[in-house]
Amino acid sequence: MNIMAFFGRRDDSASVAKNRLKILLEHERGGNSSSDAKLISSLREDILAVVARHINIDPDAVHLEMDRTGDTTTLGIDIELPDTDIRKSA
Amino acid sequence: MSNATVIVVTSGKGGVGKTTSTAAIASALAKQGYKVCAVDFDVGLRNLDLIMGAERRVVFDLVNVVRGEASIKQALVRDKKLDNLYLLPASQTRDKDALTDEGVASVINELRMYFDWIVCDSPAGIERGATLAMRYADEAIIVSNPEVSSVRDCDRIIGLLDSKTVVAEDGGRMPKHLLITRYDVERAKLGDMLAVDDVVDILSVPLIGVVPESRDVLKASNVGLPVTLSDEASPAAKAYIEATQRLLGEDIPVTIPSEKKGLLGKLFRGRAA
Ligand SMILES: Nc1ncnc2c1ncn2[C@@H]1O[C@H](COP(=O)(O)OP(=O)(O)OP(=O)(O)O)[C@@H](O)[C@H]1O
Ligand SMILES: [Mg+2]
């Protein structure tokens, strides 16, 4: 039980729901979803190409994650490196 | 061969609690330490992402993967709280034929290599989407409300599970579990709702749990947390956690958790509103 509920204040999960929906629907109505997918795909290919010039990596080891919060969108890039022999010999 | 188990959560009738149950059970399994993937098969009406609170991070979806536009690993969205829980979202396309049998087969096969449990949220109905969601399952959770039309639709679904799935085509029998949801203890007492025993009797599927009607389900969906993660003490969460233990093979009697007013609840009741 959180402290708000304890003191008998209105439990505000409904307004959390409202905000989540506003952000999501704005995004979906604008038809942004498929352009996100294209952007992520091409970014991923470029990142993979750059990293692969220096390190031997599995194409699946590059993971991009987008997080939309309304006014800002963040892009997380996660690259898993192999344990051994990572550097390519010159 | 992998040891993965593919479960379909299905019902025939819409709105009985499939998506709620998929999220709750997938998270309860993940909490036990298993690697779990929840797959949304409700193409065109994706909602599992919202219920699991992952909607802001969806980029690719099941249809992208089936069409070869993204790899499974790119499409999987990791849960915010549990790092062994993933979601494979459905797409929002209106194209009814977006999913193909071969496409779904290869997705499920690949998921089997990465996960211990794959929990598939079926769309309502008995059309292609619902039959594809169950097609490659090893076990089924049949969700019913204690209400005549829901029970009847479950009966149709049982017929499909026993004819249209790979397990059935290979001459096997799909193991099934009955999950009764939105059970209203008060109304059952008054006798204006089907009793649990009646439903079990009619469908003759072993009972895996009874989830009471609970306000906590709506609250959990508001904030985007499966009810088993948002409030473990809630009667609905308890029911899902127990159902999950039974799914894992534990032999525990089915109870119907209820809202018991604790001392605080009683004390503060007069001050509310
Ligand atoms: N135990 C419960 N107590 C109260 N409300 C519930 C319970 N289970 C589900 N609900 C509510 O019922 C509604 C339908 O639930 P849900 O979306 O999980 O059903 P569904 O079977 O997936 O629907 P669909 O067939 O449209 O996919 C939701 O508003 C949900 O919050
Ligand atoms: Mg649903």
Automatic annotation (TrEMBL), chain A:
GO BP: cell division; regulation of division septum assembly
Family membership noted in the UniProt record: Belongs to the MinE family.
InterPro entries noted in UniProt: MinE, MinE_sf
Domain of life according to the entry: Bacteria
Membrane spanning stretches: none
Alphabetically ordered keywords of this record: Cell cycle, Cell division
Protein name: Cell division topological specificity factor
HAMAP family, per the entry: MinE (MF_00262)
Keyword Cell division: yes
SUPFAM superfamilies: Cell division protein MinE topological specificity domain
Species name: Roseibium polysiphoniae
Role played: Prevents the cell division inhibition by proteins MinC and MinD at internal division sites while permitting inhibition at polar sites. This ensures cell division at the proper site by restricting the formation of a division septum at the midpoint of the long axis of the cell.
Automatic annotation (TrEMBL), chain B:
Domain CobQ/CobB/MinD/ParA nucleotide binding: 7-227
Gene3D superfamilies registered for this protein in UniProt: P-loop containing nucleotide triphosphate hydrolases
Glycosyltransferase in keyword set: no
Pfam families per the UniProt record, alphabetical: CbiA
Domain of life of the source: Bacteria
Keyword Glycosyltransferase listed: no
Keywords for the protein's UniProt record, in alphabetical order: ATP-binding, Cell cycle, Cell division, Nucleotide-binding, Septation
Assembly mode: Interacts with MinC and FtsZ.
Biological role: ATPase required for the correct placement of the division site. Cell division inhibitors MinC and MinD act in concert to form an inhibitor capable of blocking formation of the polar Z ring septums. Rapidly oscillates between the poles of the cell to destabilize FtsZ filaments that have formed before they mature into polar Z rings.
NCBIfam families in alphabetical order: minD_bact
Family note: Belongs to the ParA family. MinD subfamily.
Protein name from the UniProt record: Septum site-determining protein MinD
The organism of origin for this protein: Roseibium polysiphoniae
